[in-house]
Amino acid sequence: MSAESSPKIVIVDESPIRAAILEEGLREAGFTSVVHISEMQSLLARIYALDPDVIVIDLENPSRDVLEQMFQVSRAVRRPIAMFVDQSDAASIQASVDAGVSAYIVDGLKKERLKPILDLCISRFNAFSKLQDELDRAKSALEDRKVIDRAKGILMKLKGLTEEEAYVLLRSTAMREKKKISEIAQSILTASELLK
Amino acid sequence: MSTPLHIGFIPLVDAAALIVAVDKGFTAAEGLDVTLVREVSWSNVRDKLNIGLFDAAHLLAPVAIASSLGLGHVKVPIVAPFNLGLNGNAITVAPALHAAILAEIDGDPFDPMATALALARVVAKRRKSGAEPLTFGMTFPFSTHNYQLRFWMAAGGVDPDEDVRLVVLPPPYMVDSLRNGHVDAFCVGAPWNSIAVDFGIGRILHFVSDILVSAVEKVLAVRQDWSEKNPDVVAALVRAHIRAAEFIEQPQNRAEAARILGQPERIGVDPEVIQRTLDGRLKIASDGTMRESGRYLLVGREGAARPDPAQAAWLYAQMVRWGQTALRPDALRTAMGVFRPDLYDIASGHQGKASEASDAIGAFAGPAFNPEDIAGHLAAFRIGRWKP
Fold first, then answer.
1. Which of A61, A123, A176, B96 has the highest CB neighbour count under 10 A?
2. Which residues of A touch B170 (CB under 8 A)?
3. How far is B161 from chain A (nearest CA, A)?
4. Size of interface A-B (CB pairs under 8 A)
């Protein structure tokens, strides 16, 4: 690898969305040589064939242990790699573990060149987790909506209420019992199921 | 007020004492509020313990030593006040390799010297015919599995770095890799050997206790600085583990222990498979052949839970033999200092004693192990990366 060319980065991640987000970020930052591996079979053979300078892997991936083998000097290993660890830089280890990503540096690449890559990975991983949380929240809000609608339907039918009256009843009950409207709605659904 | 603790583990049967200590309420009874965190890789367990996300962890004994020596990773001193188990691994081979070994064997297939010599003949024949070298799966570069496989095959004349391929595989991938021919054999802990047998794709060739009578496997690991700041918490944690190990070793409790361990958020496999392991009564072939051993996995009985520095010295000697580190007297002392029988004794409230056997390991080949003379010990082995 020449010192000036863009280092070759391999992303090992079974999540295609997260890998795409990461790849996009790296390209935007000027790292043009990025390859994504999503298939864990024969991982080492694929890495050797690609011969990267940097390997990025998510921490939910059991194959992290496979990469550790590349630290060993043996016949099976052609270019030794090391995890990006700097005894003095505990903060960056902490940040990467918190974000759920870890980076390995292959023999020859200077540490200073890895730092911006790792920082970018950390911020993109955090962005992905935030996106995932928002998605989960949106999903659960949608679920809550459905439960509330069904509870309203039951109240309208059993008590002859309009939709608005049913909603007011749910809301006032929730306030009185210091619960969420969706919790009261769920208990109505459960009760109606039991009393069927 | 109870002390909150986060403890990491990998879903394996040798986490039994830890999981039972928490789920049977033994840690709560000691005033500890433990959250168990299931992890997917030893690298994660090591890193999260190192940076303090975990207070303690179920850890491969050699990783605790490697971390204390700064091998392969950042140097973080670790101590082990409790052995989670002795033995518990097995070597499983694909049917084709099993048949090839039996065709070459001179002696009893339970005799590791006979199988190792047969393996050497299989390897030689394959080389002659131009076949690919055999591939063996193990769990981590600094693992008992790595050293046990190497010790066994090298005794028969097979050089693990030259004559075969040794590859790291995460335990949950072992069975699939054997099925699709990615590996010809593997060494792993329970329940994975039994699962390969139940699927009809592997045969258990050896219990590790055939190779080494007593081999420390996983330890309860804590950071040294943390243990010094929290001596009472360490003692309470170890006491809860001693109770759990005693519970598990009572045969009438095994079914309950297996049920606790089998839960989806713990090991997540059929309790019946787990109980076979705890009982040391394993199906070794898909035709239903059973094998029983009182030494398959020891969770606390026969003093198994008390850390023995001679075991740490043996693991360090393997790291030296296979070129992972150089032989240095100070490194040997550091390695032995990871295993802390004194912390175990403080917790148990009585002075324990070290194994009386002259050799704590009981290997099937080579001279008796003497921690005082590792160079002399290693000189007795022809194959290895270490040169005096």
1. A61
2. 62-63, 65-66
3. 6
4. 74
Give residue-wise pLDDT tens across range A108-149: 677 677 778 888 888 888 888 888 888 888 888 888 899 999
Q: Look at A41 and B161 and tell me if their CB atoms are within 8 Å.
A: no
Asked, for residue B248, whether it belongs to a domain, the answer is yes
- Confirm whether B311 is domain-assigned: no
Pair A137, A175: CB distance under 8 Å: no
pLDDT score, position A3: 44
Q: How many CB atoms lie under 10 A from the CB of residue B64?
A: 30
Closest CA to B59 of B144, B2, B132: B144
Range of the domain at B338: 3-85+217-268+327-355
- Domain for residue B15, yes or no? yes
Range from A89-103, A136-150, B131-145 carrying the lowest mean pLDDT = A89-103
CA distance B85 to B82: 9
Q: Which two tokens stand for residue B233?
A: 């918490």
Q: Confirm whether B227 is domain-assigned.
A: yes
What's the pLDDT at A194? 85
Domain total for chain B? 1
Residues linked to residue B32 through DSSP beta bridges, in sequence order: B3
Q: What ipTM was reported for this prediction?
A: 0.87
pLDDT one-digit tens code per residue, B244-257: 999 999 999 999 99
Nearest Cα residue in chain B from A75: B161
Chain A residues in contact with B323 by the CB 8 A cut-off are 73-74
Distance in angstroms (rounded) separating the CA atoms of residues A33 and A157:
63
Question: Of A65, A84, A96, which to mutate for an interface test with B (greatest number of B Cβ within 10 Å)?
Answer: A65
**pTM of the prediction?**
0.86
